[in-house]
Amino acid sequence: MIKLFPPLCILALLIFNSSALADRPISWGNISNQEWEIMSFEDDEEANAIILTDFGESYFDDRGNSIFKRHIRIKILDPDNSDFTDVTLRVFREDRAQNLSSLQAQTFNRDENGRVTRDRLGRRDFNSERSGSYEVTRFSFPNVREGSIIEYTYQIMTRNRFRIQDWYFQWHEPVLHSEYRVLIPHQLTFQTYRVGFMPFDKDETVQLGSNAGFYPDTFPSTISVYHRFILNNAPAIRNESHISSRNNYRNRVEFTLSAYLEPNGRPRNLTQSWDDISERLTDIHRFDGQMRSNRDTRELAARLTDGLGTDFEKARALYNYVAREVNWNNRYSIFASDRNGVRDALRNNSGNSAEKAIILINLLRETGIEVNPVLINVRNQGYINWANPSLENFSHLLLKVYLEDGVFLLDPLTSDIPFGMLYPSSLNYEGMVVDGDKWRQIGIDAQLGSASQTVAIANLSEDGSVDLQLQMRYSGYEAIAQRILLRNGEKDTYYRETLLGNNPDIEIISADTQNLDQPEETLQNRLELKSENFAMISGDMMYVNPFMVTQTSRNPFSNRQRNFPVEFLYGLENMYSITLQIPEGFEVDYIPESRTLQLSDNTAFLLQIEQMGNIIQLSTRLIRNDVFFEAEDYEKNRAFYSDIVAINEEQIILSRSTASR
User: Fold this and answer.
1) Coil, strand or helix: which one is 192?
2) CATH of the domain at 358
3) 312 and 194 together in one domain
4) Among 19, 90, 257, 454, which residue's beta carbon has the most beta carbons within 10 A?
5) What is the pLDDT of residue 552?
6) Which helix (H) or strand (E) element contains residue 320?
7) Which residue, 15, 191, 159, 142, is CA-closest to 93?
8) What is the dihedral of CA 115, 120, 125, 127, to 10 degrees?
9) Cα(483)–Cα(416) distance, rounded to whole angstroms?
């Protein structure tokens, strides 16, 4: 999934004059006429701003501190909807680890005569406050209007830590020029990881005999490694529908320290392999040290499995207990919160995701059931970067359980997740099974099919009103999604907004949900509705939309272009049927034709409709077994769902019969 780009020039053994690399792509307050004229970005009608230049530099000062400097200039197209006019900067202040300095900001405007005015922010305009271990600095740009240009610059010093700031070349708004320069003394060796789908306009790594025109306080070194990355005209990456995480596709570079020279000149290798990571886990008390037998788990496991015969029954009973009785505090982790985290979570019936998983591991092992922890990264945080062995790749813990009935992945976060299924955010393709000090890679996806079915019975009156009965059934991940929505809000709001789209013309007579607390059963909603304006009447004609309640009125792929894949959480089968009784005195003038839309061998939409006397029977079926589409298939997806929207907008036309006029 992650695409790594090879550098265009790998460590060329060249010695540059310092001034050759000294000129920078942006200077404070120096705005060109070309920048003033820019008011749009190609093929992006949604842009509220354009990042004109984003320039960063990282190096180590003569005290070994990591220095990161950034200068960014932005053209504001829509000040009311742009979030660049308010800026928040965070630095880690525990033990004075980081320090923010050299902060400047200003707004530029140009009138119709070409006269440029500038509003500078002063020291009082920057508001800083402590928030836990962080210092948060906030400021807002003054006098921003359409066409304004804003810019700010700052420096972050990280004390005595051999780290280099990662750099993102793409944001939620388009970027004309993004450039990152890094200078590393020969005493330090970093692995460089390039992530993204766009080729860099410049990607060079050279060896220098000077500080490359950086700054006079650069760490003294006879030889330095100089990196320079440039990406021009980078399109925005926004949180579009059906995307796992923007971080999977945003072009960026990451640096990881792999070796350094000790003061005596002896090399120290820090390169890690996944074998090293697996072995290290056995020494971490908040992980392996928590997977221990104790009296509490022995007694609880014996009580919960008393009288149960098979290992499957025992495993499901233990899973249900942890999922239902130990509350999740909404924090993801692969570690217990402290040395007593698992024991405290069991006694207090509350813990993070790792503590819940480890409680279940301990209970299963007390029962003699084989189980291993599985490290994953939750979906919205991005793919696992297997090229960079690090525990920072992971954020959540699952279990792999081996039973005679099969092998199961368990995710005991909440009571809404049936045994053998995963929380939706855990469906992130891959994970790492840890077995003692060994490890192996496994696939993680939706193992079970999901379905939704809506059955409607509509009795239409001659005045266009209708009495409507709905029955909605959900299974698999569709049921999990609906249960989560129900838990997170009021039932009335769920019925009105989620199921009926906040349609003001529909009155809810009664509504009921069944099997909400039985996650292994089909979730069912039953609604009795009434609408005075179900059909539109014009003279002797009546126009009826049979999809009024479950209408697909918006294409989820509205953008004309998309440079990254389409990713669905799971495959599904979505069925809808309505039995419509025509009122006395009316006859059918037009009904849509039955048809089939085919996106691929595994994805299709079917419409069937027929008339039997004064009854019209309509049904649709969306089958989508494909969950991943490459970027080049985006237009096919967009056209497929546009056709579905068009079908949902078609109407049945009735006319008053001659005898009843």
Assistant:
1) strand
2) 3.10.620.30
3) no
4) 454
5) 79
6) helix 311-325
7) 159
8) 120
9) 7
Beta bridge partners of 536: 543
Read off the pLDDT of residues 122-149 as tens digits, 9 standing for 90 and up: 999 999 999 988 999 999 999 999 999 9
207 and 336 co-located in one domain: no
Residue 337 lies in a domain: yes
State both tokens at 116.
């440029």
CB of 393 closer than 8 Å to CB of 245 = no
Asked if residue 262 lies in contact with residue 195, where contact means CB atoms within 8 angstroms, the answer is no
pTM comes to 0.85
Any idea which residue has 């920078």 for tokens?
Answer: 24
For residue 33, count other CB atoms closer than 10 A to its CB. Answer: 8
Average pLDDT over residues 104-123: 96
At 21, the pLDDT band (50, 70, 90 cuts) reads low
Residues 265 and 372 in one domain: no
How would residue 661 be classed by pLDDT, with cut points 50, 70 and 90?
A: low
Domain boundary among 420, 444, 468: 444
Is the residue at 479 inside a domain? yes
Is residue 618, in this structure, part of any structural domain at all? yes
Give the whole-angstrom CA distance, residue 220 versus residue 502. Answer: 66
Residue 2: inside a domain, yes or no?
no
Residue by residue, DSSP assigns 413-433 as T-TTS-TT---GGG--EEEEE
How far is it, in rounded angstroms, from Cα 168 to Cα 575? 42
Range of the domain at 156: 9-269
The position carrying tokens 């104790």 is: 294
Residue with tokens 């092998």: 407
